[in-house]
UniProtKB/TrEMBL annotation, chains A, B:
Species of provenance: Tomitella cavernea
InterPro entries: Aldolase_TIM, HMGL, PYR_CT
NCBIfam families with a match to the protein in the record: PRK05692.1 (NF004283)
Superkingdom, taxonomy of origin: Bacteria
GO molecular function: lyase activity
Protein name as annotated: Hydroxymethylglutaryl-CoA lyase
Amino acid sequence: MDGLPQRVSIREVGLRDGLQNEAPLPTEAKVRLLEALASTGVPRIELTAFVSPRAVPAMADAAAMAAAAGTFRDDGPEFSALVASPGGARRAVDAGITTVEYVVSASDGHSRANVKATTDEALARTSGVADIVHGAGGRLEVIIATAWDCPFDGPTDPDRTVRVAAGALALGADSLAVADTIGTATPGRVTALISRIRVELSPSAAQPITLGAHFHNTRGAGLACAWAAVQAGVTQLDAAVGGFGGCPFAPGASGNIATEELVYLLDDSGIATGIDLEAALAAAALVEEIVGRPGASNLLRAGDRKRGRTPVSTDLNTIASDAAS
Amino acid sequence: MDGLPQRVSIREVGLRDGLQNEAPLPTEAKVRLLEALASTGVPRIELTAFVSPRAVPAMADAAAMAAAAGTFRDDGPEFSALVASPGGARRAVDAGITTVEYVVSASDGHSRANVKATTDEALARTSGVADIVHGAGGRLEVIIATAWDCPFDGPTDPDRTVRVAAGALALGADSLAVADTIGTATPGRVTALISRIRVELSPSAAQPITLGAHFHNTRGAGLACAWAAVQAGVTQLDAAVGGFGGCPFAPGASGNIATEELVYLLDDSGIATGIDLEAALAAAALVEEIVGRPGASNLLRAGDRKRGRTPVSTDLNTIASDAAS
């Protein structure tokens, strides 16, 4: 498997992206989930979003989640929070968060709907966000939303995505991630965009840029996109426990790629994640219990081959004998 | 996208693998589905299986399905049927089927459960099957089941899979496909096995062997495996309309990779399938109606980006404004 990394760092986004469209859950339940997630060995956990509690009631307890994260040991996961403005960044650092994600949409349509500003206006705010985060001794990642497609503007011109990526680095981002916000990307276009960003923005071929990626499984291609991204040089991937993140008003529509499925896929392909799959499956079962409905994890239904959770029935695939016929 | 094929030929296996574990449906309903599938432009359709009607009641109408296929125009799809013995092959050609798939499991455990014979015994029957099929002017594909993992024996030694593939060719197979029978494969192992078969069994580097592959999405990795297979040189893929093929006794467990999701993924990645996606989505809706329950197609829930079926709500992924905060 030439060219593949030995290790991929997964960021668990279930507490934020997985739950942001759900009815608000008690903070106590989310802290229980946080503890289950931390016990899986996942290296990074996105805790919450410091955004308008009117727009996203499910994230209204952001400061409480940050406080809960503060009780973990120093050798635990790295905690982060998402913001959409300098004001959000201020509240995040005031709550003790030092790893901050600031979102800039590569398409004007989504940017306007999301933060009432064009892409360029939102991008220009990066330096203000960076000042706040760096002033608190923190680290800033810019997540480029609608990197492939926009629900309003259609396909995003790759030139725009590359320009936003370059601009974010120039304005203070310490790292970048590209997001398939509406779950329409496919591996061919993932390879093309990631490869282009890597070529154009790496300091040199010997010093490739560290790039993260964020996929939704809305049309079934999420894990295929994640695999294509890893092949193209991505070493940081977002995923949500249980595959939550789907719109709760569209039953059956799946959301983020499921953390446990990504762990299974990478580990079995020889790429280490540091995550215990059995603990990840337990966390997926817990989030279903807390939310009160099934998520979108096929693996949780089927079980892990290696640990004997495969159902005894093999009816699923048996060809059936006609040797006697 | 160097090295990728311009075209991939999809074989629709929904009428066989998709329905074989369901309660038997009226032949009339299956013929309606067959007509819907043929109208999508899919180049190949697996109609049925000539196996024991006691073991697989859902396929008891195999001859009737073959007769229905006989009414299609000559420029329509290529129809095939699956068999598990020379006796099945005889019944298939007697029913007018000229493209036959014979299954050999690469693992003894699955082979015994499936056809009451070891791998070597089942493989040896290939020549008898080939004689019958070739005697009728037909074409024989050997599908190697449990090519990666066996539900009884665990991981299949790649040496075994390669040996079965070579044996099948020597005994009269006109083409080969490898099947991830229990949906446990991952892209890293797909790349490894496909690459090895291509290297060891191609007549020469300039004349690569034509190889098919068959994946299940049981653990979420089906489309990622399909993509890895295409990258490794596979140009023929099986898929089932609506993602059926899951065990009906394990709700939520998904089955074959969904045809419409594979079409979306390949077309959007620049690889032609010749299949009309809108017609494929209509066929997926029809199979759900006929079977009477939802399948496992995320795309059917979410809609195709290009044809404006994306739900109006963008709540799914919106980050939500805190510009005012």
